[in-house]
Design goal:
The structure is a single chain. By secondary structure, the chain is of the alpha/beta class. It is built from ten helices and eight strands. It has an eight-stranded parallel β-barrel with strand order 1-2-3-4-5-6-7-8, surrounded by six helices. Strand 1, helix 2 and strand 2 form a beta-alpha-beta unit. Helix 4 runs parallel beside helix 6, helix 6 packs parallel to helix 7 and helix 7 crosses helix 8. The radius of gyration is 16 Å and the shape is globular. The termini are close together.
Length: about 220
């Protein structure tokens, strides 16, 4: 499926979003991101500036999670968090959707929530995390349409802290709703090359995983 290691690496967001991630963990993750030339490293806000410094000149983008992992904060709080991450060097933002709004059927409020965050953080890539495992098929369809209208560049399946991670069925359902209007990031429980390949075949254009180095080594071993 992948013609070379570079093609594989460029769909991987190397992820370090554990709340207990230490500075040593961050340093190791940056070494891995630099070694394999991943598309991006995704970190919590506290780590953004250090990651930006460590990865300067490598071509690896730094991304931050926003409203993570529950998405239940106010729009203003998300905007402040997102703008702080941008100030510290984040080029991509993975923003958790407000599940309470989704479950309450408040798609109009949800659209305003997402749109305001996107509007205040122009110039970065936005990925809206919808937490598929917590939603019904109808809710997945509704939130995908809302996020696209609000201006996101990606729909992301999961936080990795919800009921479950990404599935092929999730990706097929999302693609059926959004068509080619938006890209998809699969995340949560993706630990091996076989799963990456299945997700890409189902429509994922970015993979979020903390197992990026192991996946790359599996690719090299297969060659």
């Amino acid at each position: 499926m992948f013609k070379d290691a570079g093609q594989l690496a460029q769909i991987i967001d190397h992820t370090l979003v554990r709340p207990d991630a230490t500075l040593d963990d961050l340093a190791a993750a940056c070494v891995d991101a630099k070694r394999y030339r991943f598309a991006a490293i995704m970190v919590n806000g506290w780590h953004v500036a250090r990651a930006k410094t460590a990865l300067a000149g490598t071509g690896v983008k730094v991304g931050a999670v926003v409203g993570f992992p529950h998405g239940a904060c106010t729009t203003t709080v998300k905007i402040v968090e997102a703008m702080e991450a941008m100030k510290n060097g984040a080029e991509e933002l993975d923003i958790v959707v407000n599940l309470g709004m989704v479950k309450s059927g408040k798609q109009e409020l949800l659209e305003i929530d997402i749109k305001n965050v996107v509007a205040m953080t122009k110039g970065v890539v936005h990925k809206i995390i919808i937490e598929c495992g917590a939603l019904t098929p109808d809710e997945i369809a509704d939130v995908c349409r809302t996020a696209v209208r609000a201006g996101t560049e990606f729909i992301k399946t999961s936080t990795g802290y919800g009921p479950r991670g990404a599935t092929v069925d999730d990706l097929l359902a999302i693609r059926a709703v959004i068509g080619s209007t938006c890209r998809i990031k699969a995340s949560g429980g993706i630990k091996d090359l076989e799963t990456v390949e299945a997700m890409v075949k189902a429509g994922a254009e970015r993979i979020g995983t903390s197992a990026g180095p192991a996946i790359m080594e599996e690719f090299f071993a297969r060659r």
